[in-house]
Amino acid sequence: MTMATHFQRPQIIQSQFIRLCCPRNVRRAPPSFGRKCLHTKTVTDNDIVRLASLPLHPLTLADLVKHGRPPLTTSQLLSSATFTLSILPARLAHRIQSLRNLPFIVVSNPHISKIHSNYIHSLSTLLPWAEKEITSLEDEVKFTEVMADLVQTHSNTISILARGFLEARKYISPKDVTRFLDEHLRARIGTRLIAEQHLALHFSSQPHRELMHEDGGESEGFIGVIDTKLRPAKIVQHCENIVSEICELKYGVRPHVVINGEPEYTFAHVPVHLEYIITELLKNAFRATVEHGKEREPIEVTIAPLPDDYYETNGNERRMNYTEGHVIQNVDQGNTDLASRSFTGHATSPSPSSDEQIRPLAHSTPGVTIRIRDRGGGISPENYEHIWDYSFTTFNEEQASNTLSGGSSSSSGSGMDALNAISGPGGEGAHSLAGLGYGLPLGRAYAEYFGGGIAVQSMWGWGTDVYLSLRGVGRIEGDPFGGRSI
């Protein structure tokens, strides 16, 4: 096989994941990707135990940009592949072990069993690579095919798990479900982000762009999936258009959004994550506003840059001065496997030495606070304490049955309405998460993953203010860190 012929192969996976380099395409579902061409190795129990005993590598935004600004050279691209391979097998093994620690009758559910099988498959495609080094572009192309398969295989993990736990709700407590899902879905964010980052770097890398005659114009300003010039106001406008269309379809009216503060502000972050969070927050604000009869009242979105020293002077138990070691906790990233203790009495948690706090960068990084204010009547006191729960855990039998059968409910507390029928990040189907109430807790997981957060302040009978804070990746001038070391 000639080199020119060989490098036609990335086109197989390029069409699926070109969306990673273009925020406007993040909602397109990728086509199916065949598994038969991948070399696999049988996963044994010993493999799982060995890999699950390894501490998980805490992921920082610095990890994702350390290989340089695209187009990457051959050596940088191989370095990205090696880094990706070094941390993914252990992450998959931790998820397999955590699933196996669920009560047997829960794991036996076909949906949850499907997720377990998907993780086994993905680990089987990585094990052959764990025994070798990625030293050539030919190896890198083949490894990228494995990453494409991994992303596609797990594209519907959230909706499948949701259905599984809904069906198994008689055999596991709502508290245990919430604890397990919160941990599992946070861990999934990192695993998916690592794989998608290498895919995006692959398609924007110098060797492949030259051979495939790509100009890469649409991805200017991106380092993989990170937009170094992300303008929150543009994301808000995009999400407003989507939510407004669905709101008008459902209710016949659409509230309008007013953006104030500093709408031209930019910082570096993952646009797909911000799109998901903003969509969920606007969806809640639109619904409350319309149902409270205040559709003529604007929904105010205020964008305020965070001071560079914000995380040094205004931290809390999750965000403190990084010199004191309290910026991001492993629990924020699902790196602890503590949920397993609920069922087995022990957990496959990282070693104490790896449980130190996760430092995004060794210097202050600019970020943003986005406030979304509505006049939708606020959140009732009895519901306020449950806003971070996965809503299906409070469904009654009728509501649960309706959701499982694809029906809907008119109950205002069920969350089952047209405004839930919006795609989430990572390929979740437009209808698959409808009514399952994952929006707010999953949005908080995305925000907290890199040191941000979501705070909700409600005035019952009046309205709600939601504060979203995000920390950026740092000032990027020329090289990923503006000449400063990490």
Structure, described:
- The N terminus and C terminus are likely disordered.
- The chain has 2 domains: 220 residues, Alpha-ketoacid/pyruvate dehydrogenase kinase, N-terminal domain (Butyryl-CoA Dehydrogenase, subunit A, domain 3), CATH 1.20.140; 190 residues, Histidine kinase-like ATPase, C-terminal domain (Heat Shock Protein 90), CATH 3.30.565.10.
- Strand 7 and strand 8 form a beta hairpin.
- Helix 5 packs antiparallel against helix 7.
- It is α+β, with helices and mostly antiparallel strands and 486 residues long.
- The chain is 44% helix and 10% strand.
- It contains 18 helices and 8 strands.
- The protein has a 5-stranded mixed sheet with strand order 3-5-6-8-7, with helices on one face. It has a 3-stranded antiparallel sheet with strand order 1-2-4.
- It comes from Lophiotrema nucula.
- Its EC number is 2.7.11.-.
- Pfam families: BCDHK_Adom3.
- Its main location: mitochondrion.
